[in-house]
Amino acid sequence: MMKNSSWISTVEFAELAGIHRRVANRICRQISEEKTQVWRGASLEVRTIDGQGGKSGIQYQVKVSSLPMLLQDRLNALQSSPEDVLSIRFGEQAQRERNWKYDVIRPILEHPKHSAGREAEINRLKNTQKLDWNGKHRLLTKSTLYRWVQEFEASGGSVHVLARGVRVDKGKRRVWVSKQFTDHVPLDMEMKKTIHADLKTYVQGLLAGGAQFKQTLVLAAEKLKEICKAYGAVIGDPALIGTVFRVPHAFVQEEMHFKAVYRHNRDRKASEDKAPRIRRTTKNLAPMEIVVMDVHHINVLMTREDGSTATPKLLAFHDIATNRVYWEIVFFEERGGVRNADVIHAFVNMCQDPAFGVPQFLYVDNGSEYGFADDLEDALKLGCKVSAFNGEEDRNRVIRARAYNAAAKHVEGWFRQMNQQYFRHIQGWIDDDRMNPKRPAMGKLPAPFNHGFDAFCDTVRAYVRAYEHMPQKGALKGKSPAMAFKAHVEAGWKATVLDPESLLTVFTRPETRVVEKHSIRVKGGEPWVCDGLLEYHGRKVIVHIPKYHGFSALLVTDEAGNHIGIATRDEAYDVLDARGAKESARRKSLRNKSLTKLAKSVPHIDAGAELVAFGEKQLPVVPNEPDGVISVTGPASDGRALLPVSAIKNSRQERDEELRRRNAEVSRIAEQFFGGRKAS
């Protein structure tokens, strides 16, 4: 493009405006023929010149100053050197300033330079007031008008010079720490720059370590004194020490974002509340496709049997497709927390409810009371609908929540909504702050709910029913949870329910037991029996023992997993209790019938006859001819053979006679001994 020209060709105009050359020619022709005057909000000035090309050798040119300001800025940037471009102010504010000043000096520019007309126009405008681009009155002086005209003409007619230019040192720091520090500390600028950076690092460390704003200001000022002393900087005027080493608020404010480090390390909940979130939608989910499970306090005081008060625990299973919730309440008469057994019981009840059933995915917390959830993988797969394979079947059916991720658990919002909007109407409501509960009167807690546990459950049920029929915004788009569920039911949705006995097997660990007299022994060594064991004649069985709770019945299967029965602890009968005899007869009858049935299931075979027949079928082994014959002569053999010595055989009579003989001998000796002593 022609540098510093007041007019541009249609080719340059097309390139500048980003349009085709033919379009630029048509615009110029229409303006030249006065068919139109305005283009993109600007009144273009177009002239024709003779030259090569164009219709009949006529070419169009557009005056630069009549172009829209955006195109003028673009043209000026293309024609200027990089240094000049950096000094030009762009933007709407700069354009308005340029337009206003150009409108002021336009009448002056219509007269030739050094002409009487220009002088008269300047004299007419001087000392007058006009509303500037900011809406303020501005006094026009003669020197100002001359300066604007001179700058405009010196630039070759560029309106960009009429706006105040950008500072040459824009973006460069001119003050280190503070203006007082920069002006009065006797150190070179490089040293001050180093001190500034070191102090910034110190402030950042303080904030990351948990220092408060005021503390940081004081500690940073003290640190600045120490650094300057180490560099040998001495302030001559003692009166300036307080201002020179004072750290500005802005110096610390710029680094306040480092408090996020302390918050993340010491208050993870607050840090996670500010964590970025992703958007998810539930519009394509079916009921019970994803269920979120959690436990929360109901912020209502209830009276225990001993007169003390406590808050019930609410176990909730939130179906995020419809925002329905299956719930149960646990209330402890003594101190304690929710156990695996409590959650299992609630889960089993939900799986039996035809309005809920078995979820496809279960989203649980990481608490110990949800340890049973890892045993649900196979059970939850039973609730999956048949669909084309897409890799989803390999995904875990139990999803554990990430720590400090309450926002990802939809049920947390439901707990908050119920406690704040519904349960507040129950007698004994104290709100979420346990340290500062709601009080109907100063210094007095609200009266607890004292109508009993069943009445409390009925009250909660009534409020949950009201919640389910309340229209909701968000994913439900004005529908209530009940309406959303009804739409799915009418579309054909059905729950997948499980038999409770079958479901409880997934919360057990299999243990092998040896069957003794058609019974097994579990904890404590007491026998457990069932009719299936009476009819079982194997040696070992598998006993499914619950992992998380006590038991009064146990599922027994054989080693192949086939059902045997539900074993219970064997009952002990009194000695004279007739029921014992009846039970014994019944057991023998069952056993005998099972043996008879077992015998009839196979053909009768005489095992002894089979063995004899087997032996008779075998061919005898014929020995080989003897290798040699050994003969024994009569005379020689007499001295080589020793006849066995016959054993001495004493009859009982002979032993008795020998015993009497010895006793008589002992008596005779004793008599002689004692008799001799008497004679002396």
In words, what does this structure look like?
With 680 residues, this protein is of the alpha+beta class. Among the domains are: 1-79, no CATH class; 179-268, no CATH class; 284-386 and 394-490, 2-Layer Sandwich (Nucleotidyltransferase, domain 5); 501-598, no CATH class. 41% of the residues lie in helices and 13% in strands. The chain contains 25 helices and 20 strands. A six-stranded antiparallel β-sheet has the order 15-18-19-20-17-16. Mean pLDDT is 79; it is low at 382-399.
Short recap of the structure:
The protein has 680 residues and is an alpha+beta fold. Helix content is 41%, strand content 13%.
Key descriptive features of the protein:
single chain, 680 residues, alpha+beta, Nucleotidyltransferase, domain 5, 6-stranded antiparallel β-sheet, 5-stranded mixed β-sheet, 25 helices, 41% helix
Corresponding CATH superfamily of the domain at 284-386 and 394-490: Ribonuclease H-like superfamily/Ribonuclease H
Into which percent range does the helicity of residues fall? Answer: 40-55%
What sort of overall outline do the alpha carbons produce when their principal axes are compared? elongated
**Based on DSSP secondary structure assignment, what is the total number of beta strands?**
20
**Widest sheet, order of strands:** 15-18-19-20-17-16
Please state roughly what percent of the residues sit in beta strands, choosing from under 5%, 5-15%, 15-25%, 25-35%, 35-45% or over 45%: 5-15%
Distance between the termini: 169 Å
Known CATH architecture of the domain at 284-386 and 394-490: 2-Layer Sandwich
Query: What integer value in Å does the Rg equal?
Result: 53 Å
Low-confidence spans: 382-399
Main sheet summary: 6 strands, antiparallel
Mean pLDDT: 79
- Helix/strand/pairing class, anyone? alpha+beta
Question: Please, how many helices?
Answer: 25
Q: What's the CATH first level of the domain at 284-386 and 394-490?
A: Alpha Beta
Query: What name does CATH use for the topology of the domain at 284-386 and 394-490?
Result: Nucleotidyltransferase, domain 5
